[in-house]
Amino acid sequence: MAGVRTVVSTEWRKVADHGSGDRGRDLYWQGRVDQADEAGALIDASGRILRTTPACDALLVTGGDGVARWTLLPCEQARVDTVLARATARIAPEAAALRYHAAPDRAPLILIARPVPWAMRLLHATPGAAVVTLIDPAERPAPASQLWREAFDLTPSEVALAALLMAGHSLESAAAARDCRQTTLRVHLRHIFAKTGVSRQADLVSLLARIGRG
User: In this structure, how many other beta carbons lie within 10 angstroms of the beta carbon of residue 54?
Assistant: First the structure.
């Protein structure tokens, strides 16, 4: 599958592919997509990679011929092809996902393929059939500390605790990392819950992750 290093994003795909009629605005959105943290790619009905984000380029493996591929392992290629075929099917395409190895010396990646709606494909004559997202489970998003503080009026101590929870710490390990008592962190956590409107750590981490990187 040959890769053309361009851009794609679920939110900005329409503008990036077809333009809005305003060159300045198109270039602005194109620049936003170029800087996107999401590892995304647009593929056609045959599974050929049409566009990629820089984050996706970093995860794609490259063969000896320099061509970007989803995997270098023949045993994994069939599994990847099956997932892509489900998302690009002409009749009843559906989202699909798998966890697979891209290279012998690399940790597994998660591949998610979502079909481009037929209405969009027909209306805009786009060759893109599906959007593929690659997730590296070992990578953790950098905390958007300033945005959290501004959005929820968190104190510096609350932001510090939120960042540790986002990094996978428990209250016990967070207390050790900050050299303070768990009881103190529980008070901070209660205040964070009240300010963010959630009541569980899992929901808090999910909410903060949606705000994105700093």
Answer: 14
Sequence-separated (6 or more) residues with CB below 8 Å from residue 204: 162, 165, 192, 193, 196, 198
Helix (H), strand (E) at residue 146: helix 145-152
**What's the CA gap between 182 and 194, in Å, rounded?**
18
Provide the phi-psi class of 19: left if phi over 0, else alpha when psi is between -120 and 50, else beta: left
Q: Is residue 149 within a helix (H) or strand (E), and if so which, with residue range?
A: helix 145-152
pLDDT (tens digit per residue) in 41-58: 888 888 888 888 888 888
Instruction: Say what the pLDDT of residue 14 is.
Output: 39
Global pTM reads: 0.69
Nearest Cα to 162, choosing from 39, 36, 151, 37? Answer: 151
What dihedral do alpha carbons 63, 79, 83, 69 form, nearest 10°?
A: 0
